[in-house]
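Next comes this protein.

***
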Amino acid sequence: MSSALHALGRWAYRARLLVVLLWVGILAVLFGLAGLLGTGTNNTYAFPGTQSQDALDSLARTFPQFSGTSAQLIAVAPDDGDVTDPDFESAVEDAITALGEIPQVSGVSSPYDDSSSADISSDSSAVLVTIQLTVQTVDVLPATSDALQAEGRTLQGNLPDGSQVSVGGALYSQVNPGIGLSELTSVFIALGVLVITFGSLVAAGMPITTALVGVGAAVAVVLTGTRWLTVTSTAPLLAVMLGLAVGVDYSLFIVSRHQDQVKRGMPPEESAPRAVATAGSAVMFAATTVIIALLGLSVARIPFLTITGVSAALAVATAALVALTLTPALLAFARWHVVPKRFRPGHEASAERADEDGEPEAADVGEPTDAVESTDGADAAEVADPARGDEPAAARTPPRPGGVFGHWVRGAIRWPPVTVVLITAVLALAALPAAHLRLALPDSGSLPEGAPGRVTYDLIAEHFGAGANGPLILTGSVIQSTDPVTLVDEIAADVADVQGVAAVPLATPNETGDTAVIQVIPDGAPDSEETEQLVHRLRAMHDVFLEDYAVDLAVTGYTALGIDISERLGSALLPFGLLVVGLSLVLLAMVFRSIVVPITAALGYVLSIGAAFGLTSLVFVDGFLAGPLNVESAGAVTSFMPIIVMGVLFGLAMDYEVFLVSRMREEYLKGGEPRPSIERGFVASARVVTAAGIIMFTVFGGFILNGEASMQPIAFGLATGVAIDAFIVRMTLTPAVLAWFGRHAWWFPAGLDRVLPHFDVEGEGLAREDELADWPEPGDAHAIVGEGVAVRREPRLVGIDVRVPAGGALVVAGATPEERRALLLALTGRRPVVDGRLKCLGLVLPVRARSVRADSAVVEIAGLRDPIAAVVDAAADGPRLLAIDGVDLLADPTARDELREVLTGAAGGAERRTGHPLTLLVSCERAEAAEAVLPTDMGRTVLEPAASARTATEAAGTGAVT
């Protein structure tokens, strides 16, 4: 992957103007489509397959009056006043008449129709008017909503002084959140962090620019999709929040790597593609994990949540694409301006003076000094031997990194068991409040103070009880009854006696007498535990109603629907958690070839998410610090908060894990001791991870203060989760665990190493290609060059040295048929090479195995009916390498002569057709058998591979023979 990213980065750098124009054009097109096709978000929560949703769908067919949304008007009399006063009643009745004439209003209930109406408060201080509309909230015209509010203001003017009128209800229970001052402030704070990190305003502006481009493109696509999909207001807001956070981070990683390389003297045109190939590989890994986790939200089987996850995943994918293409284009425009002047050409003298003064760039904040950075693998691997007269090891050991991060990591690993136990205990303690985390859909009670819906909600709760804001609806078929009115009244009487029921204000069949509707007012608030218990209590009485009245009653309504959604989401947390934890184990095992690292990462993620949930519960359920954080209502969090936070935090946690631990692993593989490797690797990457963590926390924190109820707990959970995971788990707990296990931290079972594919996230393959670019010598034209090559099989082939000129032939003889076949497959990129140096067609294996496979063909004689035809077909594709396994199986001399004729013709015409000579690889038990099939004028190289199962003497005697 690093090679492909290197090519992409090189193209974007060279075509910088084209790339910028392409993204400007893409944004223009997407914005145009959003404006033309977008219909706006729709906060209608559908939940197919549940009792509440099925009952609502049935009501829409049999009781159309209840199929649309509703609004509520509450009129409160002045102090010592009475709503039954004739003047007050007359004004309310006039308002009811006027409300009924507003378009899209199907009916308005009068609290004065029944003297015992539940719509008159018990102390006669307030009346409640229910307004039923013919359409759902998303289809209500703005003129209708405005007319309802205008009629409320008219009634206010017609009532005595001191009266209060408010229009709210379900129609006004949701607001479309926007981007406010706090979000914009977080962007400027992120810019400040980047300026400090890079020391360059030009470099700092790039991540902000790319993030804004990615967010704009993703949100435009989401808004365009509103024409065909039900997209809640949370989806684009979550896309903005995630797009900003990861967009800044992804570009940050690339620009940081580029800046470090340019500081070391690498030309910008060479550095930018390399930064995309190395840091970009980690960006791809991080983005992939986040996208998989967000798409995994579909496990809950809730349509609006699936769409929200897809929208957020789209934002992450767009952020990664913009970072990988637009960032190198911007770097091309900036060239040397991404670094301070002393690192630019013509300022070498000042840079040297700075080094002589002992003040390397950023060393004071924890970056490694030049002495540490210049340590190569050979130096790290050497150990002083007094017998050879070497100098003591202490004199040859690189200086320990200093600065803030150097002291940080040494403090973390000084007493590993103490660090591990202390952090685990603290995070477990922080997770305790998560035990009473309550989930609920946002309602009017969570709106900002002063909003019409919130004012109405508070007045209703004050005068009619909290349950009046979340009525339940019982519905069922009564078509079998000859007296549906009496039947419904009897059922309502029984329901009124159920514990937790405050009132039953409405019980009626529809006009055709086939469907009953019973409205139930709970004692508790819509998001309270008492109301949840009442819903379960009423559903538990289903069989009683069926036996006594022959009515199949279902409990529904917005409140019941919210309870069902919360329970479904709560039950999905465990399988989703197992999915992401299992995924982290597999992915990190692929990357680091370790058992300790993925297990530590997974358990650290569990600690982070537990602590984030605990702190979220403390604020949004218990109300701790609710005022300073601008939390309008405590008691429950948005139902989909836990699963979204789990998905997003998983990807970010893996991101930080890869950036930190990969550098530690790199230092260790150079031959260093575990602890010094941890220190050097930590200091080399901690600056970037710290900046990324601060930026993430800042962006998420900006969405906490905007007061939007559905996003606040999500933003808080992500902000605290990122801070805990980045600074406590990844930067403190992980180094301590690695130091505790020492060398065992990098142990990996051989069986798993064979099974799991390799995933290069730090551009190791590109570094390997650079290392072997001029090997065995500059301009080498051999088709195959190998030294000390080992091939994965059982037993493993080792110690293979081979050179085959282009247009020549390699004869693999001796050994066993399986070993000969394994070597042919390895030389054509079809079996992993696990050790040594090997280049085929000028490409390094196993790094460029895919390219070698594409330019080679393999024919296995065994089992073929017509092996000659198979060779003809393989040669017709024009490969540069043609491997034939088992030529000695051609016992017929005529077949051998025919094969020689085919190969002679293929070799003769190869360079004319493809511009490259054909190199042949054949295997047989005895090398003499190959003479009968190879072209007479083609040079031969004979190789007898050695297996690791043989003795050293046998292996030494079976090397390459030319």
